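Project standup — Tuesday

K.O.: blocked on the structure for the chain from last sprint. Re-posting the sequence here as requested.
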Amino acid sequence: MLQEIVSAVSGVLTDYVMVTVLLAAALFFTIVTRGVQFRMVGEMLRLLIHSGKRDNDHRKNDEPQHGTISSFQAFALSIASRVGTGNLAGVATAIAVGGPGAVFWMWIIAIFGAATAFIESTLAQLFKVKGDTSFLGGPAYYIQKGLHKRWWAVIFAVLITLTFGFAFNSVQSNTIAGALSTSFGIPTGWTAWGLCGLTLIVIWGGIQRVSRFSEIVVPVMAIAYILLALVIICMNISHFPAVMALIIENAFGMDQALGGTVGAAMVMGIKRGLFSNEAGEGSTPNAAATASVTHPVKQGLIQTLGVYTDTLIICTSTAFIILCSGVFTNGDNGIVLTQQAIDAGLGTDAAIGSTFVSIAIFFFAFTSIVANYYYGETNIRFIHDNDTLINIYRLLVGAIVYAGAVTSLDIVWGFADITMALMTLCNLAAILMLGKYAIRLLRDYRSQLRAGHDPVYQSSTIPEIASETECWD
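H.V.: unblocked you, prediction finished:
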């Protein structure tokens, strides 16, 4: 009974309300920024290349304890959260349920949703605050400082902690345990204890340890996975034109429209795309705020590139592996379908796909766990900055990671969909009201670029909120 109620509520919230508002916001921000996600791709790449070292030109000598997270580390932290179960299992499920056309709608929500990611990450930088060892920020902070709605900010902080710190982390650990059990016969109990211990070791080191871990592991695994996808595509290159035609046909074909599968493809593509790239959800701004940059727009642009990296590169790699293999019609979905597709694409019976995907999902999902933990920590500190409370939260995350690995998660997925939808709607409403500041920042940034300067922001540039932007004095 409870499962049916949860499924009904989550279905309405995610399939109709959230998808509609998400698309509308993405189109609106694309228009008002004049397509920032298209016209500034070159600047995004330039910033990412030069962001490996700390951008500290604006830091004062008497503030060495702040800004210790480089722009690239913040980018890697957000990618660590994005790149996980959704990229391997979520894409497979979207194709199995919504058909190949779901891939097209994943591309659409990424391309237009990138403008939403720019707005929310720029706002996170603008309204960030000084923590003990790094900057803190995110939707809870810009809701309180920009809209002066403490109650609204607290609701968001609670929702993101429940969604990422607990529900999504249990899903990630469950996926890891299942993959390792299938491929290597490792008992789920052993995996559960191992994940619990590793998680506590990493998260007890704070944001610096989390960001250092992410910037090393995420790029290596992402590159390895992309290379595997390229190998499979090259081995099956004769199927590539047919695969592209299949995606477009299933997204818009008359037969699909009459059969109602176009709507299924759209909903599944957008839902899985959001779960994967998180644009508009309000999660990645928490990572974006930690970076030390001279202008908020710099991190906004870099995080926009993160949406492309996640969906247009990594999710598309999974989609092409599955569609080139031709096994997507066999009735399986999720991580099993991805494993079978790699084996079929490589033309081997040696279970290479199962083994590689198990290793990849371990690293992708584990980096998601530690990044998701941080989103919860920064929002708990927003509600009440108390070290004892944070230590209790760390222990609870360890317990949730253990429990997720050894239990069924059907009910958890339902609650996670509900809290994710409510969290997304909270954030979208806030950035629609505050987006005017991000647009003014974008104009200021482009003006300084045209003048030949490395853009630097001062709080006096937007005087009406100068008192709320303490890190930009």
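K.O.: great, moving the ticket to review. The chain has 19 helices and two strands. The chain has one domain: 2-472.
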